[in-house]
Specification:
This is UPF0102 protein N790_14665. One of its GO terms (molecular function) is nucleic acid binding. Belongs to the UPF0102 family. This protein is globular. The relative contact order is 0.19. It is built from three helices and five strands. The protein has one domain: Trna Endonuclease, Chain: A, domain 1, CATH 3.40.1350.10. By secondary structure, the protein is α+β, with helices and mostly antiparallel strands. The protein starts with a helix and ends in a 5-residue tail after the last strand. Strands 1-2-3-4-5 form a five-stranded mixed sheet.
Length: 122
């Protein structure tokens, strides 16, 4: 089921804000909103030689733990599968170091969690 328009607009705004934050920290956008049937990559960015796969999660409040807590093990696996598929489509980057970041967005602002999880966590 597609997201309601207002929810999608909020998510798009959070993603744009996350992109600005990361670009301000020196990362460069490679691709955004990459969809596979088994997962999605919000932002794929380059941080020096490293490819950062960035999940952006907006939560209006932290009643259930906020954006970071909403990325559970199942979601991490889906992101990792999508990252693997993306790297297969970009063999020139397949040997680059990679990491998984999460940007937790809320009305209070953004929190960037660099290296929020690793494949060993899965």
């Amino acid at each position: 089921m597609p997201a309601r328009p207002e929810k999608r607009a909020t998510g798009d705004a959070a993603e744009a804000a996350a992109r600005r934050l990361l670009e301000g920290e020196g990362l460069r956008l490679i691709e955004r909103n990459v969809n596979y049937r088994f997962g999605e990559l919000d932002l794929v960015m380059r941080d020096g030689d490293t490819i950062a796969f960035v999940e952006v999660r907006y939560r209006a409040d932290d009643r259930y733990g906020g954006g970071l807590a909403s990325v559970d093990r199942r979601k991490c696996r889906r992101i990792a599968l999508a990252a693997r598929a993306w790297l297969q489509r970009h063999p020139e980057l397949a040997d680059a170091p990679c990491r998984f970041d999460i940007v937790a967005a809320s009305p209070a602002g953004l929190e960037w969690h660099r290296g929020a999880f690793t494949l060993d966590d899965l």
